[in-house]
Amino acid sequence: MTTPTQAPVPGEFRKGWKVLLAALLGTACGASPLPFQTMGFMIGPIRDEFGWSLRDISFGVTIYGVLGALLAPAFGAMADRFGVRRVALLSTAAFGVAFASFSLMRDSLAMFYALWTLVGLVGIGSTPITWSRAVNLWFFRNRGLALGLTLVGTSVAAMILPTLTVTLIHQLGWRGAYAALALLPLLVALPVALAFFREPRPEERPPELNAVDASGKVALGGMTLRECLRGYRFWLLALSIFCVAFAYGGALVHMPQMLKAHGFADTQQAVVVSLFGVSIFAGRIITGLLLDRFWAPLVTLPILCLPAVSCLLLAGDHLTFATAVFAGFLLGFSSGAETDLVAFLAGRYFGMANYGRIYGSLYMVFGIASALSPLAYGWVKDSTGSYDLILYVAAVMFVAGAFLLLTLGRYPPLHSSAPLAPAVGAPLGTGVAT
Fold first, then answer.
1. Are the beta carbons of 371 and 170 closer than 8 angstroms?
2. What is the reported pTM?
3. What is d(CA 392, CA 309) in angstroms, rounded to the nearest whole number?
4. What domains are defined for the chain?
């Protein structure tokens, strides 16, 4: 049974809005949305020029996703150890340069895969692994909304990138489009992050996050990664993430090709994919507000079941433009809820002391599933001539992922492996629904 939390504290936004802005832009221009939001429109021109199959082209995103996912715990650990600002800034700059390198590509699958490998090696620090750590440290009572606003960056990207990518391809060709898109992390996200992005000092943190050890030193409360791996909640959350991310990732990348197979023009494809951004925006804000007030798995149960309906609508031979728009909206809305939920639950169930390592490990699952998914969608389409089979599988996975979250149980009190007590006057459980 859920109960409302205490009233939000406006002071968190007064202190943390600059960091929130930098995190939003960093998320929007980072290695999380750019490859996936643009690749669906690059597939056609690349295939036309080089004659590669959908499977071969999709495998590039798979390389990036798997490699980036495997490196996510390492980047998270670096953020825990060296500070999130340094990791985020260096990775954002390197990602922009690596993404621009696609403009130099020639007719070589080896070169294509090498460039995606480079993006995976350097770009993962420009994803929510870093941006969400800082936001989690600035916000507690408003954490759900703050994370929703941070990850609205992906919805902003989803609203802008499809039309922008199509326009750039038409005017500059696909190579020029890659070079132009790389300016987003380099000239938009990076300058703002340089000016505003940082972790709070101990006295600037929400008091609920602080604990004191026997010597009186203030520290962050939370579990170690090893403690998480010994518990059941981490594995249930990881399995839910895998199901939802695998079902969603390929649907996003291949959406333009699905619509093209139904006879829609590229401008119509861009409209549908752009609506992902609107629905992701709505999903993030609505879900974030609810997460601050009610038990998170119950909030997201119906939301994560909605894309199963989308999969059923997209399958078959009678897709209308109105139905495609509706299906895209449902997919985007659920995506906004799911990615917010991962960052929220990582901080709420496991604490902030080792958030980078823990969230990085969960993001690894998310990244691997998202990377394998486009390959699976492309393989099914190449093998059967239709996306129907993988869409039916995805519908089942969406529902399974939603119900798995119900087994997580009540929020535990924040703690760490060391015997830490709450900071004076600030019980660790304050303001959290159970």
1. no
2. 0.70
3. 10
4. 11-194+224-409 (1.20.1250.20)
